[in-house]
Structure formats: structure tokens, C-alpha cells
Amino acid sequence: MTARIVLLHLAVLLLLFALQFIASDYVILTLTRIMVLAVYASGYNLLFGYSGLLSLGHAMFFATGLYAAAIGTTRAGLSVPEAFLAATLIGVVVSSIMGVIVLRARGVGFMIVTLMFSQAAFLTVLYFGDYTRGDEGIVILDTIRIFSFLGRTIDLTDPLLRYNLALALLAILVALILVLVRSRFGHVLVAIRENEDRTAMLGYDVARYKFIAFVISGTLSAVSGATYALMFAYAGSTLASIQYSIHPLLWTLLGGASTTLGPMLGTGVMFLLVDFASGFTNVSLLITGAVLIALVLFFPKGILGSIRQRYLKWLP
Amino acid sequence: MEQSKLTVPAMSGITRRNMLKAAAAATGFAAGPGFVRYAQAASSEPIRIGFQVHRTGIGAAYGRWYERTTNAAVALINEQGGINGRPVEIIAEDDGTDPGRGAEVVEKFATQHKCDVGFGTLFSHVVMGSAPRAGELKLPYYVVSEGHHVASGALNRYTFQPGITDVKSQVISLAPWIAKNLGKKVCMIYPDFAFGYDHRDYFSAAIKAQGGEVNALIPIPPTESSFTRYFPQIPADTDVIYHVMVGPAVLTFVKELGEHFGSQHPALFGFIDSLEAVDLKSPGLEFLEGSYLWEAYPRFAGAAPKAHDTFYRSKVGVDANGASTSDAADISTYSHMFGCWETLYTLKNAMEAAGYQGPADKAKLIEATEAITAIAEGNEHPQGDKIFNGKIHQSFGHQNITQVKGGVADVVYRTTIEEGLYEPEADYTKMAL
Amino acid sequence: MSFLPHLLLAVLEGTVAAAVLALSALGLSLVFGVMRVVNVAHGEFFMLGAMLAWWTAKMMPGGPFAGFIAAFIVAPAAVGALAFLTERLLLRRINYDPEATIVATIGLLFVIQQMALTFFGADAKPVAAPFSYRIVFPWFGYSGYKLFVVVASGAVLLGVWWVLSRTRFGLIMRVTQFDRETATAFGIPVNTVYSVVFVAGAALVAVAAVLIVPIQQAHYLMGLDPLLMSFIVVIIGGLGSIKGSVIAAFMIGMTDGVISVFFSPTLASIISTLAVAFVLVVRPQGLFGAETR
Asked: Which of A78, A148, B66, C202 is such that its CA lies 20 to 30 A from the CA of C279?
């Protein structure tokens, strides 16, 4: 791993860290949300960008984490760290089961199978409405969100603490993704994306690599969902809907698929775009749609992908 | 290497917070961490009300009318000299009827627009998603949702519902009249999600208390667009069909009910939610002739409207049939949108009682709102008088039962407030401010 | 209600549901069959068709029947025109890449929804049926128009089948479907065929919407349901097989009716959605589709 790649990522994280001393309250709150959702987008990118598997159903994993955390804390009596851990483990289990099933489909079939399973998951949330409160959802009260951990009090209602926790999570993620994609494992994934049959012929167990990528991707989505529920105190069926499967696709495409920092950038840019628009118009749908179309037509590689192609060849 | 760096940000964050606290205390500002700037608001500045509007998404049909009513009320308040001598400014943001976006909008109100209060949310799931953010950012948050969420104690000290009665109270108050006039065997058809469950649970209990029973429960999934196949589940000995449907497919529901039963059918009692923004003269609704509706605020002004109802209609731009004065085919959401008007006036009164000058007086505003007990009928509260329970942050008003005749619904009974009261389930005033 | 009347009602409802499914899925099946791309905006074309039916009925004097007839011209024409632009400006430029098409048509889905919201508003819009006749059984009544929808969709399906199997154009389409390169080698203007197919698929779904909207309502968010249902039908029936789609529509319409009568309807949706997923996993060509190429 070259030094400048490490330096670039460290610089991004340091910049985010430094921002909290100068940024306004609003920027702090917004960036917290973006960082949590960036974990979702990065998990998605591992599967879509690097392995070439376009899922239209990642909301089911996001929702897995979301509901595991929300139901775990409000009904099962788990503490916040326990619920987070449980949500992560359930994320591993659910994405493993899904991986075994959906990876049998290829191409467009894979997209539709994931879409269908995600829709079934969404309906399941509604079906168990007595536990999930369906669309209305679950609020996690502050009494749960202020807890003591390893002898010190953690107050998740504190915006700055949340910011730094989200940043910590993002830092772990960036490190993980960077290590993964620069490793042999990552190179094999890219080889699968470029030519699955040839990679198989070279003796790689393609199915196993795809499965592992799928499970990591699904688990990261669940981690993001759990963090979202615990930090922002809410879980509801809307967050399991198709819309939330399309979000990470959009963010990844915008920032640049198969770049380490692209999903993060895409999440941020899209967030700010919608946020900017919602104040004076009601055309947020139009913006989302237009960005998607424009990306497909003119910038299939996204922001960082285009920069890498033209200027910075070394960009990971 | 990345790992070792991790603990540093979290630690420094806390340190920085403590530093801020110390700084705030030193300079005499008592505001919470990160909100020091608030205390500097000048008194000539407008009072800023952040308005969460459902401009897009499933709630858009309601959102449009909520916006119209809100703008009319604010224009009037400003004509009358504003609140505490300061003009009122509405800062409206679309929340897409999405709880995730709703929460973001509340954050934006509190920290970017520096709003004094948040206001106006209708759909329950958006309220549920947004209220925790409002509580945390200490943004007084006045919702107009009719859900039981506020009164149930699920939310927080900063969230109020002073303008519209909650579902639990509505259905409790209607049960005696239904049992007495329509029959004791009630078949309930309701949406298969939280809003429907409130109807199911609270009405079932209420009708039992009247010596009646619910003889069948028919939940209908929110995505359904065809209903005929559910109708065989309606038992033959049903006296009353109780229907409360929401969403764009409601008209189909009534139409198919008509096709199924023809002229021989049990009595019908429906919630106007099924038909908000829908013309009662729409094709297929002939079936509703003679049936009964719950309305919080009767859409049709009737033969002898009260002066304040006429006043309210003229200010919002609604005619005597509940349609827009500029387009007779554009039907309002009359039984819900009055909540925006009344909530703004309740807010005005609370701010005046608290001597509210700026965000530093938030705690006083919360306490002043909680101190409200009675709300008088008049131009400011055209739907009727109400009582307000400060412990559960919820108001209780009169409900109306109307009967449809020739495409017009006329009031046949108006409940008393007492009929809708129940034991409070929570006490928000014990929570920290 | 006793068993036999209940069964009669279930069968009637199942038949109507099947007709609605087959009709809404037809356009998607056609496009996927020939062009091998999935149009995610298919449901929005349906929604636009329904909206235009409402708009035409409102603008057209002379009662519901005149409005209904006019909508049969206006809706397919307008939706077809939009589809033509989509094909030229979008799909052709990305060279019908299957994955890029899905992403691009998701974008289109949002754009169309926004347009419908901005121009037609957020309210649900009732459209009167061209005639209202209530069939009275001893136990219950039933909408005569619903049965008309069954007959009409049968006619539309037969018409499409005839074009595909008995005309020269149908032959050209089948050749293109079989192999794009071969078709080009035989001098078939593949791009023109694609244009025609995409426009025809959109016009068909608009016709479906005009027929179906009197038993539902037009609403700017109504497109998702027909889209998912069409996916289900097209996938179970075998991609590109119209016969398979019709059989699948009847299977789903009937079983969905029965399950939701005896169990929870949400459960019925979960089961049919999962069924599709498993069919795709186990038998990617669908239950009735033959393996192509």
C-alpha cells in the first residue's frame, strides 16, 4: 500500500475530525448522519463497485440492523452496546442466508431477486406490526440512549459525542475497505467483476469470494442501520422500503463505484443537494431522478471515478 | 494503526463539550452545549416557526391544505400584531412524508434556520421519526397528527398536540352513540398498521364498555387496491360496519362495498379520513347515502353556521361545501387542517403567557403550554372548545357524527368533551427540561 | 357467507385480478422479451396512462363513455410518445446495457412521479366507468365493469398474440428477440424494431391503465404496485413468453385470492414475492420459458 494512499485517507479523516471545532451545529448534525449513511453506501460499494453485483435490495440489511437494535433495546431489554453487537451478528446471519440463496442468480436476475426479497422483508415488517408498529415505527427513549459503558456515562443525545462515534465507525470502515480492496481478496473480486468465467478458470473459487463479499456488504449495511436507529432513536418501515435500497446505489454511483472514498462523497453530495432543494421547492424527486439519469448517460464512473480516470491514476 | 487513532476523537469530543460548557457558564449564557448563539436573538426579529410540510410522498394531498391553513392563520396573526409584538415567520420545508427526512428537517429547523419552534407534522410515522430529534435539540415541537403517540407517553417533553384530538379519545367518544343508535355488533375494517391498531384496540374496548361487541376484525394491508374479497368476512349478523381507511385507495373501498351489498346492508359508520379531499358526489359514492361519518370538524357548513366557522372558512378560502373558493372540485381536508390554525393560536397564547422573547425562554414556553387547561371556542378555535391535559400534552375536543344525504353530510350528533376523556397514561411534566 | 357463494366470489375476484395482472404485465413482457432490458419505469407509464384517462375524462364533454373512448386514444399516444423519447435519448445512448438501463429507468421513475405530482396534484382521482351495471347474485352484487375488464383484456392479449405470431412484423420481432446479430445480418433494422417495441410496450400499459383505472383510482404513487406485480408475473411466466405470463397471471391471481381470503393478505403478498425470488433462483428462465440461446 503506497504511502500517499494512506495519507489521503488519513487526511480525510483528520479533516472530518478537525471540522467539529469550526463547523456550525447544523453541519455537525448533518455530517453525523452522512457518516452513518456512508457506512451503508461503502458496504454497498464493496458488492456493487468491486464485485460487480448490483443489488436492489440492500434496504433489507439496513432494516435488519435497524430493527434488531430498536427491538433489542426497547423490547428485549438489551443495553445499547449489546443491541449493537446483536444487530451486527444478526446482520451476519441474515446476509449469509440471503447470500446462499440470491447468489445463484446472475445479472438482471440478481437485481430482481434482491428487489423481491427486500420487498418481502418490508412486508414482513408490516406483517409483524404488533412488534414493529408497522409504518409508525419505534422510538427509542432517551432513558435507554444514556447509559454507562466501561465505567463511564455515554450520552447518545449529545451531538458532539455522536459525531465522534460516527467518525470512529467511519474510520474503522475506511481502514477495513482499504485493506480489503488492496488485498488479494479485493483483486480477485475485481477480476470476478471483469470476467467471472475466466477468474473461475484460473482456479479461484468464485462462489466463495462472492459469498464473502456479499456477507461483508450486508453486515456493514446492518451496522449502519443499527447505528442509525441507536443514534437517531427511531426505526420505522419506511426505512425498509425500496426507496432505501435505491439510495446506496445512487450515492455509490454519484461518488464513484469501486473507489474507496466515492460512496462517502456521493452520500454527502446527494444529501446536501436534497437538503438544499427541500427548503424552497418540492422537486426532490426530480433531482434524484435527474441525477441518476445524468450519471448513467454522462458520468458512469461517478465523481471520483472520473477524477481517477483523468487526473489521479493512483486513486484507490 | 487506524485502530489506535479511534479512541482519540471520542475523547476529544467530550473535552470540547466540557470546554464549551465552561465557556458558556463563564459568559453567563445558560444554554446547552453548542447552542450558545441562540441567546443573542434580538427582540425585533420575527418568531420563526419551522413548518414540516408533506409536499411530496403519500401525505401530499393533506400537506397542501395544511400549508394553506397555516399561511392563512399566520397572515391573520401578523395582521393582529404578531406574537409579543414580533411578527411570525413560517419556514416551510418538505419532508417527503418520510420519517428519515422528517428528522433531518427538524435538525435543520433547530440549528440552521434557528427556529423558535417546529410545527405542523401530520403523518404519525414522521412524527415518530422527528420527535426524538426535537426533544434532543430542545425544539418545542407542536404536531397536528391526531395519532395517539403524544398522549401515549412514547415521545418527550418537547412534543405537544394541542390542536387536534387523538384517535383514542375520538373512538371512545363515539362508541356510546354507535351502540345506542346503530347497533351493538360492530364489524371493524381498518388499515393493517399502527393507525389501524389504535382504532382496533381502543374502539373494541370502548364498545364493550357500552355492552356491545366487535364481531369481526378485518385488517387491510396498506398497499391493497381492491377490497371485494374481504367482504365475505363480514358476518351476516353485523349491525354496523365501522370503516376507517386511509390512502389513495379509499374511494375504491367504498365503491366496492356498494357493489357488494347493494341496498341491503348493515348500518355504515366511517371515518372521514377515508374521504378527506374526496368529493362526496364522486362516481361510486352514491352508496354512502344515509350512512354516518365521523368528522372532527364538519366539512359542510350546514343551514346555520356559527359566525367563527364562516370567518375561518373565508380566511382559509374554503366555501360552505368544504371546497376551495377558487375551485369547487378541490375538496379540502377539513377535519384535520383546522388543527394547524388552532395550534398556531394555542402557541401564540402560550408564548404570550410565557412572555416569550427568544429561544432562551423555551423552558418557560413549555411550562406555559403545559399550564393550559381550557381552550375557548371562537375565531381562534373555530372547531370548538377543548380541554388540554398538560401531563400528556394532548387536547380533547368535541367530535361530530354526520349523516350523508344527497352528497352532503349534516351533523346529527356532537359528542361532549367528557365522552372522550380517558385516564392519562403518562406524565411528561416529570421529564427534565 | 356460505362456502359456495364465497367460492364464487373468490373465483370472480381471482379472474379479475388475473386479467389486471396479465394486462399490466404485457408491455413489460414484450419489452423484456425482445430487447432484454427491464424497464423499471413501467409502473410509471401505467400511472401516467391512468392520470391521462382522468384528465381526458375531465376535459371531454359528453359523459364517462365519451371520456373513456377519448382516453383510449390520448393515453397510449402520449405515453407512447414519452416512451419514444426515452428510447431515443436514453436507452439507445447507453446501448441497451441491461444494468445501466435499470438505473436509468429508476431515474426516469422519479422524474415521471415528480411531473405527475406537479401537473396533476397529489389527490387520488376517481374515474367513472364508461357504464355502470351491477350484476346481482342472490348472495351479493358484483361490478359488471370488472367483468368487462376481463373480456377486454382477453381481447387485447389475443390481439397482441395475433400480431406476434401471424404478421410479418411479429416475425421480425421474434427474429430480433432470438438473436440481435443474426437479425442485423438479415438486414432487419434492429434499432427501429427496438423503438417500435418499446413504444408498443408503453402504449399497451397505457391501454391497460385506461381499462383498469375505473376500478381503482389515479394517484401519482400508484405505479409501484403494478410494477412489482408485473415483475412477478413476467418472471414466473418466463421472461418474454406471453403465454407464460398469462398462465402465471392466472396462477397468481387465483392463489393470491385464496390465500388472502383464508389467511392474512400481507402474508399472501410475502408468499408470492418470495415465490418469485425462489423461481428466479432455481429456474432463472421462469416456469414456462424456454432457455434462450
From this structure: C202
